[in-house]
Amino acid sequence: MNEDKFPGHKILPYILIAPSLIVIFVFLIIPFAQSIRESFYTSTAFGTHSIFVGLRNYMRLFASQEYRSSVVTTFKFSAFVIIIGLAISLGIAQLLNQKIKGVGFYQIALIWTYAISPTVAGVIWASMFAPATGLIPYIVSKVSGGYSLNWMTNGDLALFIVAAAATWKMLGYNIVFFLAGLQNVPDEFLEAAQIDGAGSWKAFWRITFPLLSPTTSFLLFVNMLYAFFQVFGLIDIMTKGGPGNATELLIYKLYRDGFIHLNTGSASAQSFIIFFVISIVAIFQLRIATRKSIYSR
Amino acid sequence: MAEPVNITFWHAMSGSRLGVLESIVDGFNEANPDYEVVPLFTGSYAETLTKYVAAYPTKTGPNIVQSYEVGTQTMIDSGAITPVYEIPGMLGETWDWAQYVIPITNYYSVEGNLWSMPFNSSTAMLYYNKDIFEEAGLDPNKPPSTWKEMEEYGQQILDSGVVDHVYSTGWPDWIFEQALAIHNHLYADNDNGRSGLATKVVFDDDFGHMIFDTWTRLHDKGIYIFGGSEYAPNTAFNSGQIAMLIQSTSSLAGIINSADFRVGTSFYPRFEGYPVGNSVIGGGSLWVTKGQSEEELRGVWEFFKYLSREDVAIQWHKGTGYFPVSLGALKTLLDEGWFSQDQAYLTAFLQILSGRRDTAAATGVRLGPFVAMREDFVSSLEKALAGQLSPEDALNEAAEKMNLKLQDYLELHGQ
Question: What is the pTM of this model?
């Protein structure tokens, strides 16, 4: 029985967890409930007047071609950031895990991207690709004989550049964790494999990769959250969702509808949808990850 | 001695404009020891408005807030505002509103009454690089005055190979609104939303489509390069990568200071054979929060009077390129030869003062969900330029989305 743990102090456990509960209620549960309520209303900008509209905010979102394309864009973007990003990071981490001269320098050079603020990263990438003044459109134009590379009118290109910038920005973080993971792989295992005649490719996939799985599943989750929520600053600096709606990720659309267009009803509905989708993905991912990961050796 | 009354002032002026604003505020505080205006930079216009919306219900808002022109209807409908025209009466004073530049005060007036204090007003005009004109074999003192000439001159400049693209524009949404107003064409019904809340947009007709077609065609020929929103394309113009720029007059001081070529300015190009209207006002104005004590209101009013003083209006104009809002300041500038030193500063004035001001179409657009609607416009223009949609479908798509927003606004704010 639980009471036995605190004999004579029935309320004590509740008092002890009260501070955390209060924080969770005030900062998470109550605002969450409020935004669910608001998603059924349409309100004036200053909140002076609201009309109950039932599910209309949701219906409009699902019916809106823009919202659906924002969903597709978000998934494309996330897939790029997660899959390409993790693959490159793992590759680089593997290279950095060699015993070569000056490896400390390489490690720092490749990791420091994480220390750059999204604003600075956004400005660097945006000015590199600036249509009339940027270095890369200039090179492309010289090499191709006049092709004008303009990401401000080419949606696919814009999405690719933003995704590349986001991936680049996250590389450092991923590399640090992969590197730590790789350094925990016992050399004896790899030596044993070598003695048994396994090539380094085979040894990597049969030994290193499975042993890295706790790191990989953690990074999968962190990168998903990053791709869904934390790329806001980069998008805001680089494209503001344009051209057209080519780089309007769900989180950015929510911000624009809520804070620029002052349409709290629609923004609340969108936040609930994102919450719902992320919860499902997260539950699946954690289930699979905890089942498949090899935590002990 | 009594403590000075604090007047909080939220604004969105960044960059070089911030310094000018702060020195004006310091000047006021020095001259008026009874009051202390406390300016606070609250981010972009949109961010400032968001903060104001959040602060108002909790009574933690400022005495004065700066809002952009597209936020005008939102502010009028907010119920949070004391209209500026009522303030002198509340304090037992009278004030002659006719001393301001009329096309500017008209924009911020409802039924002839001024709701917010014009502060940083601008309009759109054509900037061009005289050196590039000359290199391409064009007369540097003959900028294009019609869109047909934009195309002809543009082609000639392209063929000469001096630059890869000829022109770009800031604020594409606003530049489109200018094109309508300059030809006395309405943007939305109910007199551009000025005689009642607008119910639908009316630019999706032959004229609007013709503008969209022209821009798309110039883009396809490589004459027009889409350079992003707001002030992003200025860099390309300043570095001589493009020959012309259609941009807010508030960029003038910045462009003149950073260009190492001869800068020419001229009127916004016209479409031949269409009626004459006027270019419209953009920028921002100052709004006064309702429910202040008489003491605070008096401080606000003293500050507004100070801003209208000739020397202060001139300081603001010279520091930024925004219009000086009072006619007196305009005359003084003329007398001291400011405009003949650099007549580029005169272009915008002549443009707004020479246009008509008796129609709603030439006065400017006022819509509730204007911020969101402008984005619909830009995203449609981007789709047309990228070839994702035909110019006609793109403009119609924008109109459709905008109409839905106007309907929603009506549902909430209609009687």
Answer: 0.81
